[in-house]
Design a protein that fits this description.
Blueprint: H1 2-40, H2 53-68, H3 72-85, H4 89-107, H5 110-113, E1 116-122, E2 125-136, E3 149-155, E4 162-167, E5 172-174, H6 179-187
Antiparallel strand pairs: 1-2, 1-5, 2-3, 3-4
Helix pairs in contact: 1-2
Length: 194
């Protein structure tokens, strides 16, 4: 009697482990897209509305802004607006962080984004990190420059946060693993291997 019960519990947990991540992912994607569609669909005349038209409007607006950024006058106008936002105390932190995040992904090639490294903290402690700037030479100390360093992001498990560390090149070893596999390994704390 106990053995069939253990099997039933094991089957239940296996089903839950498969179904829960799938269901939550689909729900989050659906909620994000439907919210965005609902917000942007207000720009669509009622007689032209169809499900997804808000997302279509969002794509058109994004492409339009991207095209306008090639015009000097429009670019100067956006730069002026950015400088105003960067002077407002609370807004400045959020806006500049978003700009940096988008610039990081927009300006780097796929080979630069795939820099997964192993960071040695001590003889028996190593962390997986991601190179964010291979030539970090900004002076940060009162005594002057800290020398040539590599900026490495060390994420924490379960997406709690992370740390940016500046290391000499000899403290990191490139890994032959994709960014996606490395992130999966780190963010699940090794529960699910790459």
């Amino acid at each position: 009697m106990i053995k069939p019960m253990k099997n039933a519990v094991a089957i239940f947990w296996k089903g839950l482990a498969t179904l829960l991540p799938l269901t939550v992912t689909i729900w989050v994607l659906y909620a994000a897209f439907s919210t965005l569609d609902r917000l942007l669909s207000q720009m669509v005349p009622a007689h032209l509305y169809f499900p997804g038209s808000g997302l279509l409007v969002g794509i058109v607006i994004t492409v339009g802004f991207g095209a306008l950024m090639h015009f000097f006058l429009f670019e100067r106008l956006i730069d002026y607006g950015s400088s105003v936002l960067n002077r407002i105390p609370v807004v400045k932190s959020f806006y500049s962080a978003m700009q940096d995040f988008m610039a990081y992904f927009g300006r780097r090639s796929a080979s630069e984004l795939s820099r997964v490294v192993l960071v040695t903290l001590s003889d028996d402690c190593q962390l997986i990190g991601f190179v964010t700037n291979p030539n970090f030479d900004t002076p940060l100390q009162e005594g002057g420059p800290i020398g040539q360093r590599i900026a490495v992001y060390l994420p924490m498990s379960y997406q709690i946060g992370g740390f940016m560390v500046l290391l000499p090149a000899e403290r990191v070893v490139p890994l032959e693993i994709s960014v996606e596999d490395a992130m999966r390994l780190v963010l699940t704390a090794g529960v699910r291997s790459a």
